[in-house]
Amino acid sequence: MSPLPELNKQTPIAVVASGRLGSSLAVALAEAGYYVAAVSSRQSDHREWLNSRLENAVAVENAQTAANVANVIFITAPDAMVERVCSVIEWRSHQAVVHCAGVLPLSALESADRRGAATAGFHPLQTFPSPDSHYRLKGVSFATEAQQPALFDWLSTLASDLGGSSFPIESSQRAAYHASGVMACGLLAGLTGVAAEMWESLGVDREEALKRLIPLLRATIDALDEKGLPDAITGPYVRGDVETIRTHIAAVNASSAETGKAYVALAQASLHIAREQGGLSDSAFESIKSLLSDEN
Q1: CA triplet 84, 86, 91: central angle to 5 degrees?
Q2: CA angle (124, 61, 59) in 5-degree steps
Q3: Distance CA 7, CA 152 (A)
Q4: Is the distance from CB of 279 to CB of 240 less than 8 angstroms?
Q5: What span, in angstroms and rounded, lies between the C-alpha atoms of 62 and 175?
Q6: Which of 141, 144, 147, 237 is nearest to 184 (CA)?
Q7: Which residues are bridge partners to 99 per DSSP?
Q8: Of 45, 119, 46, 59, which Cα lies nearest the Cα of 89?
Q9: Contact of 54 with 75, CB cutoff 8 Å
Q10: What is each CA distance from 131 to 127, 134, 222, in whole angstroms?
Q11: pLDDT tens digit string along 93-147?
Q12: Whole-number Å distance between alpha carbons of 141 and 124
């Protein structure tokens, strides 16, 4: 294995395939005092925007051009494109190549590894709604995996300098980790949409219902942050209110079969956490389990 380049804040960095994540990361790196030498984007208007936001970096169209001027290269393409982007770049030894995909193993960077470059994964557990979402990296956890300890240590320091923290992960653990993130983010947003659609029976459309549900969502997130689990859970599942749950099941099934299945599956999967609060008697727990099981 080739020796690593010198790793510090002055190490030249390139961010290739800079979309929302890559652009946000590049701006955050620069603001944290790291030397971002180049970024790449195939869109000319986005390159203009990147040049306006990054004083010391050059925004280029070609990923190879960006990689040529850097010792550490972050590939921030969508998951399905990471391996392809990596494979078309002529890597050098003494470079480090870092993908920012949550689910992909390090083997996605095999073409860089074969050419002697060190490889790593550095995934921020966050969503980036725009290219200028660099502020969202503060307080974030970074799933970090690296071939070489020195690269892992540098990435850990980088996570801290960005206002977050790193934790080690292995390639075999990534699918479960990423699925957890999707459940807490994308699927949660989808679940909220399904909940909002149930208001149609009240004569309220989804958009209006969402506005009315958001304060409840915010209070729930605040409770999770302030109280943690299981104390943040409220409602009939911690009270053992079997009849209320029975009426819920009838209502969600009336909404749609898919909504009914989603409600029951979520309740079954999380019932053990509700029980941890201590207010759910053994008999109520078994009654709820039985009621939910009957719906399968």
Answers
A1: 145
A2: 65
A3: 11
A4: yes
A5: 30
A6: 141
A7: 75, 121
A8: 119
A9: no
A10: 11, 8, 27
A11: 999 999 999 999 999 999 999 999 999 999 999 999 999 999 999 999 999 999 8
A12: 6
Task: Locate 7 and state its tokens.
Answer: 């790793």
Tokens matching residue 158: 């980088």
- E strands present in 125-255: 141-146, 165-168
Work out the angle at residue 237's Cα, subtended by the Cα atoms of residues 217 and 223, and round it to the nearest 5 degrees: 35
pLDDT tens-digit readout, 9-29: 999 999 999 999 999 999 999
Closest by CA to 25, choosing from 171, 187, 176, 155, is 155
Answer yes or no: are the C-beta atoms of 136 and 211 closer than 8 Å.
no
Q: What are phi and psi of 186, to 5 degrees?
A: -60, -45
Instruction: Identify the three-state secondary structure at position 123.
Output: strand
Q: What share of the chain is helix, strand, coil (3-state, %, to 5)?
A: 55, 10, 30
Q: How far is CA 159 from CA 125, 142, 279, in A?
A: 12, 7, 40
- Structural element, H or E, at residue 97: strand 96-99
Sign, CA dihedral 164-168-170-175, equals: negative
Q: How far apart are CA 181 and CA 197, in angstroms?
A: 24
Residues 6+ apart with CB under 8 A from 37: 12, 13, 14, 56, 57, 58, 66, 69, 70
The answer on pLDDT for 1 being more than 90 is no
